[in-house]
Design a protein that fits this description.
Its EC number is 3.1.1.29. The chain is of the alpha/beta class. About 40% of the residues lie in helices and about 20% in strands. The longest helix has 23 residues, at about 155-175.
Amino acid sequence: MYVIVGLGNPTLKYAKTRHNVGFDAVDLLGKMNHIAVNKRKFKGLTGQGKICGEQVVLVKPQTFMNLSGECVREVMDFYKVKPESGLVVLYDDIYIQPGELRIRQKGSAGGHNGMKNIIAHLKTQDFVRIRIGVGEKPEGMDLADYVLQRFPKAERAEVDDALLRSAKAVEEILSNNVEAAMNKYNQRKS
């Protein structure tokens, strides 16, 4: 079984913002695989089904970003899934251009507070993560203001393409392995 987590903030106020691309990716993955992510459980919204023949639980924590680990820990404990073999987390990254992805098998939080909280609750950095580029904040702009704004129209198509590729990357991980997904989707834009 796999637990696929998309990070974001609950409520419509934050819908379609840079910080919510993890939610958007999980919603798209659910839609592509006919899994509704709408059951309130474990301090989050969840949906169960199969993707590429594997049992999955799709999760959108509803604790706000900085407390995402509370939800993830509850899900992992309930389903008895080990992070290193069954967790994939999708989230925004300001150090990557809009439209680009970075898939890694493990690593630090890289300054992302949602990831810091997950790592603290799981007591490990050893799990797959798919970082979705949202672009660097303009100089002088507050980071919170930047990540909580919606994408300008010029970037929206790139981001939508990255969301589709991130969903396909999850499918690649489930049907093959992380290395195959990294080789296929960790390509920089030219």
